[in-house]
Give the backbone structure.
Amino acid sequence: MQQTHDDVTLYASRPAGVVSVDMPPTPGEFIAPRLLERTKERYPDIELRFVEGFSGELKQKLSNNEIGVAVMHDPTPREDIRISELLVESLCLVGKKGKLNKTEYTLAEASSYPLILPSRPNFLRILIDEHAEQLNLPLNIITRSDGIGHTKSLVRYGHGFTILTYGAIISDVQRGALEAAPIRDPEMNWTLCVAMRTDQIQKMMLAVIEELIQDVVQELISTGIWR
């Protein structure tokens, strides 16, 4: 009965009902609060349900119609999923504040640092490995950490360096705990997208939330918070 009610309100002329929004933890840290604020202001009859997950999980949840809108990195193109690009992020060498002495690094330079990286099949690790293998560069991995919170904590305590997007460490940079320098040669890009099922596009409630997510990200970029 609840699902029937949600389906009916999804198509209503005035957006109302429940929308499940799934995001990875680091983009969600900055998108979710602003998205909720704007939704309350503009669409008070919409209730947002936030779910935390990673890109691999999100694709499956979208396919199963368990969530309405997903924010994810580099989703694989599929006919049943509509993908809209939010921004393209470059991977950065990340260290404790004061530990980096250059404004940018080559991958050869970054790979020689004592690195704390996730294990495969983490998507970010695969991206790094692919670029390193193309240049025949060994990665100086001293510790494997499969949680981004743990990884950042280890770096903050000076146990090594890591490779992440700038978006993953915005709050740490603002607190003066971490610093980052982009890796430029080669540049390793990771695209952040918002995705919906193609058979759900006409649902007004989902469409307005997708639009608000795009607005929030553009504001974060234009104000220099996200780069």
